Amino acid sequence: MKVIIPAIALGLTGGSKSLANIANALVSRGHQVEVVVVKGMPVHYPLHGCKVTVVPQFKKEWIPKGDLILTNFYKTFKPCFEAWPRQCVRLCQGFEPDWVQDRNFALWTYRRGVPTISISKWLDNKLFQATRKRGLVVPLGVNRTIFHPRPGGQKKSAIKRILYIAREPKGYHMKGFGDFARAIQLFSRMYKGEFIVDLICPERPLQIRGVRSHVIGPQSPAQMANLYRRSDLYVSSSKSEGFGLPVLEAMACGVPVVTTNSGGVMQFCRANHNAIVTPPEHARALAKGMLTVMTRPQKAFQLSKAGLKTASKYSDAHFRQRIVTVLERLAKRL
């Protein structure tokens, strides 16, 4: 089976990480994979045995033929569908109509009748509401050889560390950086101890006024695992997430989590059991959740323990096996 994956780019983002993972999983099962990227765009994740084709732009004449075209973003769908409609499969890692300006066009890409694969039940429900059709659900997983607790347990420090992935507000407003900034400012007035926020900023350095922070650039999976392990708390403030893999990675590293109910995270999050879950766009609730973890050690331990158990049920090995099997079956039907 030959699979074409139109990626535009493979930057250090969650979606790109998943695409590279799928590509490598297909190759490991003996399939041919051709990843298509636009000239000048980054390819940060390793592709083992995959052909990488660089094109000037995404137009139908530049899309190679395969047994299956795994489209994964609304902007890559149209040229692939125009070129090879019968081979197209729509991978949904996030429901674009919720956050892109051209909502009608994004919806159009889901209404062409091609098979869909979602990474959470929440996403499949969103697609059903938009198309009245169900697709396949293949939840993501964590690589536990990389994401695991620190040997010997968590290292204690008088200065607590809060980890947060700070995406550019203009291009990634659904990630809720402004909500987190307001929440951490509120938290700083509530919390009596010392703390520092590690801000991972993939696009550009971001700052939060009045809050001590350490700005970090894009990180590899191994680097991310080390950052999780040295943290006392991981926070997510997204308004919409297809799955929320960083939340699960933090759990796998034994870090207590405070997260908004951003949709896809409820695939594995249970409020007050393995995470403190707050409403999106509610800075005060987010701040109170952080305060609970930072001032109640027993609660933090309970969240950490339950999170570890949850993460053990979502392995990257199972995801790789399942996604390849699903794609093999779809290729036979197309």
Structure, described:
This protein has 2 domains: 2-141 and 316-333, Rossmann fold; 160-311, Rossmann fold (3-Layer(aba) Sandwich), CATH 3.40.50. 36% of the residues lie in helices and 18% in strands. It is built from 10 helices and 13 strands. The strands form 2 sheets. The chain has a 7-stranded parallel β-sheet, with helices on both faces. The chain is globular and about 60 Å long.
Broad shape? globular
Radius of gyration: 20 Å
Arrangement of strands in the largest sheet: 3-2-1-4-5-6-7
What is the CATH architecture annotation of the largest domain? 3-Layer(aba) Sandwich
Question: Roughly how much helix do the residues carry, as a percent range?
Answer: 25-40%
By CATH, the topology of the largest domain is Rossmann fold
Number of discrete helical segments: 10
- Percentage beta strand: 15-25%
| Contiguous uncertain segments of 5+ residues | none
- Could you name the CATH homologous superfamily of the largest domain? Glycogen Phosphorylase B
| Class from secondary-structure proportions | alpha/beta
N-to-C terminal Cα separation, in Å? 12 Å
Q: Give the domain tally.
A: 2
User: Regarding quaternary structure, how should these chains be classified?
Assistant: single chain
Give a quick account of the main beta sheet: strands, pairing sense, barrel closure: 7 strands, parallel
Topology as H/E string? EHEEEHEHEHEEHEEHEHEEHHH
Give the integer mean of the pLDDT values.
95
- How many strand elements? 13
Level-1 CATH class name of the largest domain? Alpha Beta
GO molecular function: glycosyltransferase activity
Keywords: Transferase
Domain Glycosyl transferase family: 213-308
Organism: Marininema halotolerans
